[in-house]
């Protein structure tokens, strides 16, 4: 076991504070990673505040991890000391399942999340707001070396969460794709959909982010606080990805789909969503959900980002500023992802 320095929420809704804990000793198939950068996902806030399900406390969030390999077990073949690697939302999955499907493993029972979960040994998992982590080789990702390590961290959740549905629903040339919400996930959706060749529209609450959206690769931008937007864009999109967790008018957005179009939820609202049957039936429309992506898809996304030089637009923060950063995320006031410089854990 090794002592890890971290920040944790001691209890639901309490601010994060310094915390130390023992990381498990590495097995022969494990990689020990010194964490360099950790992205701040809105899911971290939902979970430390106990908004989804009863959480495990103290809770060390963080599932957008980029680091450097410190040590590898003797059965590890894919990584060596010094490699730049990433860890995303899960660190183990259905190890006993005979039918493990590597393209869909995030949907199998037995998924062990990077934090706020119990590991195979029954101990809590602790995430990336910490100085090192021990992860099975099969759950470690290779991060292209030429990408900036801090701005690459959000690819491990925000990137893959948009990549997976974009690929699954064939976003590409000739397809009209809308992204609702230009936050951490949404801005990655714009960059990835644009690089895949789709025609991209951003639907944001106001005109405030228009210049940014166009710079990030959007072809069009419409404010959703203007009722005209819903008249102008009626029946336009093949695919809409909704990254918003706040309540929205679902029926109005479904009206923007073409016949046979699909709206995919990735944002997680607190309450059941009110959808009228006539928002779906007349246009044979689809309403679907999507959760992160498999390890295989995540590596494909990282390689694609390496080829296309795609990273996140970030604000780099010290870990001591994490509670203020959370408040800014909640106010939609982050451009467009906070990333923690983990070296700041050593500041007094
Ligand atoms: P974020 O950075 O806070 O972005 C959310 C965006 O939603 C905001 O930037 C804002 O965009 C929009 N928004 C906020 N309040 C709104 C309101 N009252 N009405 C309409 N729009 C509003 O969050 P994130 O990190 O991208 O995460 C988004 C959601 O996805 C969270 O619920 C998170 O838990 C979830 N998530 C899901 C998965 C998955 O696998 N499905 C993975 C990661 C995260 P505008 O300012 O442009 O309107
Ligand atoms: Zn996330």
TrEMBL record:
It comes from Asticcacaulis excentricus (strain ATCC 15261 / DSM 4724 / KCTC 12464 / NCIMB 9791 / VKM B-1370 / CB 48). Residues 14-340 form the Enoyl reductase (ER) domain. GO terms for molecular function: alcohol dehydrogenase (NADP+) activity; zinc ion binding. The keyword tRNA-binding does not apply. Coiled coil: none annotated. Pfam families: ADH_N, ADH_zinc_N. Its cofactor is Zn(2+). Signal peptide: none annotated. Keywords: Metal-binding, Oxidoreductase, Zinc. This is Alcohol dehydrogenase zinc-binding domain protein. Gene3D superfamilies: Medium-chain alcohol dehydrogenases, catalytic domain (3.90.180.10), NAD(P)-binding Rossmann-like Domain (3.40.50.720). Belongs to the zinc-containing alcohol dehydrogenase family.
């Amino acid at each position: 076991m090794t002592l890890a320095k971290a920040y944790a929420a001691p209890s639901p809704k309490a601010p994060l504070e310094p915390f130390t804990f023992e990381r498990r000793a590495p097995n022969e198939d494990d990689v020990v990673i010194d964490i360099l950068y950790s992205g701040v996902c809105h899911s971290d806030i939902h979970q430390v505040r106990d908004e989804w399900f009863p959480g495990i406390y103290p809770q060390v969030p963080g599932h957008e991890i980029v680091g450097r390999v410190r040590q590898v077990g003797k059965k590890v073949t894919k990584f060596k000391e010094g490699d730049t690697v990433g860890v995303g939302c899960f660190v183990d999955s259905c190890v006993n399942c005979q039918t493990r499907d590597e393209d869909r493993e995030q949907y199998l029972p037995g998924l062990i999340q990077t934090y706020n979960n119990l590991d195979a040994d029954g101990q809590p998992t602790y995430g990336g707001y910490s100085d090192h982590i021990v992860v099975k080789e099969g759950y470690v990702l290779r991060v292209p070396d030429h990408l900036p390590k801090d701005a690459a961290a959000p690819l491990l959740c925000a990137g893959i969460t948009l990549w997976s549905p974009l690929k699954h629903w064939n976003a590409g040339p000739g397809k009209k794709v809308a992204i609702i919400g230009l936050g951490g996930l949404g801005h990655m959706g714009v960059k990835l959909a644009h690089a895949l060749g789709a025609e991209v529209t951003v639907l944001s609450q106001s005109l405030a982010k228009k210049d940014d959206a166009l710079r990030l690769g959007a072809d069009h931008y419409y404010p959703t606080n203007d009722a005209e937007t819903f008249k102008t864009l009626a029946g336009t999109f093949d695919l809409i990805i909704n990254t918003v967790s706040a309540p929205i008018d679902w029926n109005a957005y479904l009206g923007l789909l073409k016949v046979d179009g699909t709206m995919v939820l990735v944002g997680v609202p607190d309450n059941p969503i009110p959808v009228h049957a006539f928002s779906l039936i007349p246009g044979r429309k689809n309403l679907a959900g999507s959760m992160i992506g498999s390890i295989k898809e995540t590596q494909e996304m990282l390689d694609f980002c390496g080829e296309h030089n795609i990273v996140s637009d970030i604000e780099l923060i010290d870990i001591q500023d994490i509670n203020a950063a959370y408040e800014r995320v909640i106010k939609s006031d982050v451009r467009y992802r906070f990333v923690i410089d983990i070296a700041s854990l050593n500041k007094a």
